[in-house]
Amino acid sequence: MNPAHPPVRDPNRVLIFDTTLRDGEQSPGASMNLGEKLEIARTLEALGVDVIEAGFPIASPDDFAAVKAIAEQSQRSIICGLARSLKGDIDRAAEAVKPAGARARVHIFLATSAIHRQYKLNKVKEEIVKQAREAVAYAKTLIDDIEFSPEDASRTEPDFLAEVVQAVIDAGARTVNIPDTVGYAYPSDYADLITYLRTHVKGIDNVVISVHCHNDLGLAVANSLAAVRAGARQVECTINGIGERAGNCSLEEVVMAMRVRKDQFAGISTGVISQHLYGASRLVQSITGLPLQRNKAIVGDNAFAHESGIHQHGMMKNPETYEIMTPKSVGVPDTNLVLGKHSGRAALGKRLETLGLAVGEADLNKVFEAFKTLADKKKEVYDGDLIALVEEVVRGTTVSVWKLDYLHTASASGAGAGTGAMATATVRLTKDGKTVTDAATGDGPVDAVISALNRITGVAGMVEDYRLRAVTKGGDALGEVSLRAKLALGGGEAVVVGGKGLSTDIVHASCLAYLDAINRIGYQIGRLDYRTAAS
Amino acid sequence: MNPAHPPVRDPNRVLIFDTTLRDGEQSPGASMNLGEKLEIARTLEALGVDVIEAGFPIASPDDFAAVKAIAEQSQRSIICGLARSLKGDIDRAAEAVKPAGARARVHIFLATSAIHRQYKLNKVKEEIVKQAREAVAYAKTLIDDIEFSPEDASRTEPDFLAEVVQAVIDAGARTVNIPDTVGYAYPSDYADLITYLRTHVKGIDNVVISVHCHNDLGLAVANSLAAVRAGARQVECTINGIGERAGNCSLEEVVMAMRVRKDQFAGISTGVISQHLYGASRLVQSITGLPLQRNKAIVGDNAFAHESGIHQHGMMKNPETYEIMTPKSVGVPDTNLVLGKHSGRAALGKRLETLGLAVGEADLNKVFEAFKTLADKKKEVYDGDLIALVEEVVRGTTVSVWKLDYLHTASASGAGAGTGAMATATVRLTKDGKTVTDAATGDGPVDAVISALNRITGVAGMVEDYRLRAVTKGGDALGEVSLRAKLALGGGEAVVVGGKGLSTDIVHASCLAYLDAINRIGYQIGRLDYRTAAS
User: Fold this and answer.
1) Residue A287 pLDDT
2) Distance (Å) from the alpha carbon of A183 to chain B's nearest alpha carbon
3) Vertex B310, ends B307 and B314: CA angle to 5°?
4) What integer pLDDT is reported at residue B221 of this predicted model?
5) Share of chain A above pLDDT 70, in %
6) How far is CA A362 from CA A122, A365, B123, in A?
7) Mean pLDDT of B432-446
8) Å from A187 to nearest chain B CA?
9) A506-525 and A383-393 helices cross at what angle (nearest 10)?
10) Which among B264, B372, B428 has the least Cβ separation from residue A60?
11) Whole-number pLDDT of residue A530
């Protein structure tokens, strides 16, 4: 037992080692700049991550600078830099993490599987053991906290793996990581490998056994959990599960699985503050430009969304019928009962109430009938559609929302257009038979349209999140824009509302989406002023 | 043993039950129309799926019609309709699947867990057992192939679950499904439950035990696999893992896990033709409008992409160093070595060769240096960038590609604009100091831009896939358009090329992306004609 090493103090504490900034950054398309990396590192510390793998300092001068800057700003997490088993790599890594002081770690790796030895390294077993031992011993002269990874461990002969692990522990490694580099492991098999090492390597219980799983077969979380049950006490993972190929073990999934299934992980704990998971996920999505699929576990848009009528019915009686954790426990703002063709009458009634459109029982039946007809035609029924339905079905009037009558945009860009792009939008809206026309300029046509819509409706607002997806395929594909906007009316407090729009023309779809958001805020606040002055 | 029941014939055959059209369609945002459902059903049959759950016929007239139409067109898969344990539901489901003849199945469910009994159904145990038994017995008078699901089975008291399962088997159910409705199961625990049922229910080995897992804790695939090892012989799953909340077990992951880890699944087989997985995934993405995250296992854009220099180096020596299955085995066109800051010199050289830009060893060093500088600034280095680098660094000339000098678009839409939207784009391009200007109209500004670019460059083309993602966040967010286009030059054969563009203005980014694609095809074909006539 090494008393200076925090993880060993509590045998039931599983350390969370986040490698979003290293393995995650290796996701094609995910490179981040220095400011972005510092922001993610701060978020990871606030999330309660024990170790932050900040980068691979030898890879480039920018990587080195990022690891160093993260080490400098760090407050409580261990800051780790990656290095091959080469003196030059280790020097750079040690230098980069040094500002973290007692919280500095160097993570050294060397491939050990037969296929990597033969094809990548062209080295025999004895050479591998020697290089690993010498690398750790050398690193130990620079930094006390050394982690070693035999790359492709899950495909390495167990007896040779034990030999390498023994050598690096003897040389002073404090953490030995057993990576499933290629995502090949199967849970029971992987747990057996951890057990094998624990029974065949002397002194292994004085170091932390770590696991690092890739998701090529969809088993990264299950493999990590199986290893924890076999005695691993560090899990390497990333926010949103990003990383090389199919990515790494997802931090949010592995942490919440241990928490929700505490019956299977008796006494086990992590330092993660789960209420910060959703925010961390959003930040990483935004910075990396790698959006999640809607059904991503824990943090996806649909993770707490219920569409089927049967589920919605149960959820309204007792959320535990279909939810094993609360959205709040992972920082998700609210359970989302999405209205679609599978939704029941009760869910519709509840949504209308939320929109301030409570109707009587008899009227609800009428609205529900009209809703079912509409839902069979539309993929999703938006709040704007519901407002229109209630107006038409219950009140027998046409709906009093802004409608787009005419949209014209013109824009110029390119070097020949002078400095910066310039666009103009002309918009004509109608409401209750009145017509208002106005124009505005912007960075591009969408920006100009939003400014014109703000002018006409008297809303002050900006777009916070913008997504486009194809709804149909082929040449004449319809695109759906969904956006989240922060809107204020007549100097009032700003509220965040969503809006959607569908068109073959992106600019047109964006205009409809923003107008949808404006119509919702009008109903949420209970009024919408006319700006007749501009007409 | 029931000799008429195909699954029981081969004890090692795991039936794949696809519920993309039922549970998958319940993903918020995923509703599909009749034609789309028929197309997916045809694709599922071609993929070799054993059972297609086509819908929930009582839910709406459209659902009924879809199940019936799928039953009518079906050629080899069992077609299944879902029903609550109610006579009306069962009648509708049986009527809908009838056209499938001997391949017709009705799938009946009833919740059995304490929380569902109390809060959703308000029924005691005896009532549940009676209702389940009677529902199966009634259905059996209409259709021979009955499947029964005790909803929320994984949270049901095992002894009561065994009682319900015994009752429905005695009443004639041929498949009993043990769903993990809320995604709560843990693999070893779930396997124990299957084993418990196999030892406590008489005659259970004469029926097929099925599993249906949700992914709320990221364990759907692991749970399904653990159940198969415990004796389950049907796995319910969906293409891309879509479904309620965090979705269902992903078909492609569970099938490939059993195939890649055949050492863990000795003798086990499925009927899935894995080479069709990628195509099926693309179709479902396109129809549902639910894009996958890039690191989705098996079928995501990055599943076979390698960015780090170390991985790229290994991959070029022997793909098995980092790939446990070939892209070809799941129908993915090609392994994707994405060039970015982590890429090595060898990967750059290989990509230049592919682009027809082979350079000598000394020149490669120069290009690599310039590439590293560029890669530190850019998230991804596109082929267009490489072409420019080679021209500048090696040939000392400015690159001979089309460059955008000026872009002007104008568009009108809305009811007040007359029938249909109308847009005009004016584009000025330069190449080798020459300037060409032309204009075209289109459905929207992007469409008009593409037509104008086609005119100027003499390319005949159309966009096949279009994606937009935010690269930076906040009000002045940069959007990156990536598209795949089918382009032909001067009446030649069309080739599919990708292109990317970045701008604060979506239309501008789209223009740059399409131009990027055009510049690539020019280099692929080895020439780019001037259309000076239009200048």
Assistant:
1) 79
2) 8
3) 100
4) 98
5) 85
6) 79, 5, 28
7) 87
8) 8
9) 60
10) B372
11) 28
